Amino acid sequence: MIVVVPVDPPRDGLVLSALADQSPLTDSEATSLYEAAVADVCRAVASSGGDLLVNYRDAGTLPETHADGDLEAEVRALVVEDLGEDAAVRFERQVGSSRSARVGNTVTHLLEQEGAQSVGVLEPTAPLVNRTEIDGAAMSLRRDDVVLGPSTGGSVYFAGFSEPIDFTDAHTPPELSTLARRGADAGLGVGFAPMLPTIRTPAGLRETIAGLEARRAAGRPSAEATAALVGKLGLRVGEDGGLERA
Known about the structure:
Layout: E1 2-7, H1 17-22, H2 27-47, E2 51-56, H3 71-83, E3 89-93, H4 99-113, E4 119-122, H5 131-140, E5 146-150, E6 156-161, H6 175-185, E7 190-192, H7 202-217, H8 224-233, E8 235-237, E9 243-245
Parallel strand pairs: 1-2, 1-4, 2-3, 5-7
Antiparallel strand pairs: 4-6, 5-6, 8-9
């Protein structure tokens, strides 16, 4: 399976902006958290049986305020810094006027033009993912044509395909049911991966922090970069379920 990780250039106000608006995090802290999550996600893919393809946004797909500079170099530096110069990772720019179009163009090209047996799109904001979920999804795509990984608020952290669907507005919320319907409408088998949170929203960040703490307590730590930054920032889930600093 080719595992596509769509990565934005790590810039304040562009990545995880909802966290800076709705949580104790500043813009720069949200950017650092994004960078840590990208590192953990790419590391998980690199350790799996999948082939890592980092799909970066270029100037034509970004707001004008963030369209300057060498965008590919920023994303390459972020990924290579963690995986190393010799890592087996492919970089390709995103093409399309919307998220649905960009994902659809990438998946359809890989399946139809490059002959990939299966393609999985993995969100860079799901640091709790590990090789087990990735390899399990690849196995599931041998049985089902579409495999979805549910996440917070009806979103998905993973969407895998062995056959293309109609991607027009396919990521309209709630993504999970929209993508499932598109697969069913195409007569394709739809399966599901285990649920995992993303850190795109305060609720997802709280679930991620709780997951990090639970895995550490069980002696099964994961998402090292994200866990280290959460500890450095003193983030925790309070007794009332809210996000707070220690």
